[in-house]
Design goal:
This protein is an alpha+beta fold and 460 residues long. 49% of the residues are buried. The protein has 9 helices and 24 strands. The termini are far apart. The strands form 5 sheets. It has a 16-stranded mixed β-sheet that branches. Strands 3-4 form a two-stranded antiparallel sheet. A two-stranded antiparallel ribbon has the order 12-13. The chain is globular, with a radius of gyration of 21 Å. Strand 7 and strand 8 form a beta hairpin. The chain has a domain of 304 residues: Clam (outer membrane lipoprotein receptor (LolB), chain A), CATH 2.50.20. It holds the Pfam family DUF1329. This is DUF1329 domain-containing protein. InterPro entries: DUF1329 (IPR010752), TAT_signal (IPR006311). It comes from Zavarzinia compransoris.
Length: 460
């Protein structure tokens, strides 16, 4: 009789035992981080059952298959609760593709270079902020590539949302009503610029003149006409215990105003189900949340890095499902060998409608995959899901200002399952107002990231 050393349950038993003992050590057959640091194939760290859906399910679901309501129960343990509900009850489908194993595909190249270069140089200061060993602001890449705690994982998520120094995201949004129809459509731009932890030039990790800041971020709407010019500016301090300064410009009143911190848990415009707090699964400074803990380590099915639609007109994804067949993007999913589930609570926001958040994080790049939020009663409330990957497909690609193939967020879905309202938006080739996306093309501070800039955007 042939006895397999790694049977179908070996990895799961390993993960359960580690979680129960509070041990976090990425990789099963060997440590993961040295492989990534040396740009080696990550498959060496995992048995076949964690790299192939065929092996994991013993052929019941195979690479290339569509998972829908008829077979989703086979992989229920590999999905977060809301994605499972979408597939089982709401007509969503996902296509399974081969698991990526090349670290240069799983990461932004410049960001990975900075992570390798600065490995071992990070620590938490007395307040809980990430600093270098000599107490300075972080200098680029994941500060904790081999994270051992929930706080370290969120340090990775919080210091560089988009994993680029500068990002100009041109987004086309549809907000879907409970009946499955389009309730609102918006074109908007999300602009962010880090001023600490920069990766483009190893000798210049900071933007001069902003010694106490981490990033500046603006969102402004360019279409339709009734919201055109509506703008919001968030100034994020490096001290993660400080609430961001949030300013808005409302064209109807022809003036800017300062918003309270709880505005982070409200829609910016009617119909939008993504809040500022939800962005990147870490929209608020990490020390305004707390009680971080790793509640599970597991293999997981989630969006692959192959979901950029640059070979389609305007880069628009296909849609399907829901009452009218237009609710969900058609995503390609892959089996992620090892995912950490991080639970946290909005401890700095006594009026927050959120009770807790669970974020699923791929240990191979410390990138958030999907998050589920729960209301204050402990009931499931909202999913935020966003695939990240390279902007290349079928011979088409996009380069950034450093000459690198863009690695970035590709689209997003935010689904409030209590009201059954869903916002979905994708990176468009161009949106209303003639805006196009771009990354690392020089400073955008004066043009988009000041109070004067949002006033100018609102009045133009």
């Amino acid at each position: 009789m042939h006895i397999r050393k790694y049977d179908a349950g070996f990895s799961r038993r390993q993960f359960l035992e580690r979680t129960a003992k509070g041990i976090v050590a990425a990789g099963v057959l060997q440590p993961l981080w040295p492989l990534i640091a040396n740009a080696q194939d990550t498959s060496k760290a995992y048995p076949e059952e964690l790299q192939s859906i065929d092996a994991y399910t013993k052929g019941k679901v195979k690479t290339g298959d569509i998972v829908d309501a008829g077979n989703v129960d086979i992989v229920k343990d590999l999905l977060d609760p809301i994605t499972y509900k979408q597939i089982k009850e709401m007509g969503r489908r996902i296509k399974i593709v081969k698991t990526a194993t090349d670290p240069l595909v799983l990461n932004s190249n410049k960001y990975l270079e900075a992570t390798v270069r600065n490995a071992g140089k990070a620590k938490f200061d007395a307040k809980g902020n990430v600093v270098t060993q000599d107490g300075k602001r972080w200098i680029g890449g994941n500060p904790f590539p081999n994270a051992k705690t929930g706080e370290e994982v969120y340090g990775n998520l919080s210091l560089s949302w988009g994993r680029n120094d500068v990002g100009f995201y041109a987004l086309r949004d549809c907000d879907i009503s409970p009946s499955g129809e389009v309730a609102y459509k918006y074109d908007f731009c999300w602009v962010e610029q880090n001023v600490a932890g920069l990766i483009s030039d190893p000798n210049k990790p900071y933007l001069e003149g902003f010694d106490d800041m981490l990033r500046f971020q603006t969102v402004f709407f360019s279409s339709p006409n009734d919201v055109r010019g509506t703008s919001f500016l968030s100034n994020h301090f490096y001290d993660q215990s400080k609430f961001p300064d949030l300013f808005g410009y409302l064209p109807a009143f022809k003036r800017e105003r300062r918003f309270p911190t709880n505005q982070r848990f409200e829609p910016l415009v009617p119909g939008l189900t993504l809040f500022l707090s939800d962005a990147w699964h870490a929209g608020d400074p990490m020390l305004t949340w707390g009680n971080y803990k790793i509640v599970d380590t597991k293999p997981h099915l989630a969006a692959a890095g192959s979901n950029w639609n640059g070979d389609r007109p305007g880069w628009e994804p296909e849609v399907h499902g829901g009452p009218k067949g237009i609710s969900f993007y058609q995503y390609e999913y892959e089996l992620k060998p090892e995912v950490l589930v991080i639970e946290s609570e909005p401890t700095g926001y006594p009026r927050a409608p959120v009770g807790k958040r669970r974020t699923y994080v791929d240990v191979r790049n410390m990138q958030g995959l999907v998050s589920n939020t729960y209301d204050r009663r402990g009931e499931l409330w909202k999913l935020v899901e966003a695939p990240y990957g390279r902007y290349e497909k079928n011979g088409k690609s996009v380069k950034d200002g450093n000459g690198e193939t863009v690695w970035s967020v590709q689209s997003c879905m935010a689904h409030d399952i209590q009201s059954n309202r869903l916002s979905r938006f994708y990176m468009a080739e161009e949106i209303g107002g003639g805006y196009k996306p771009g990354w690392n093309n020089g400073s955008l501070y004066e043009q988009f990231l000041t109070i004067q800039a949002i006033r100018r955007l609102g009045s133009s």
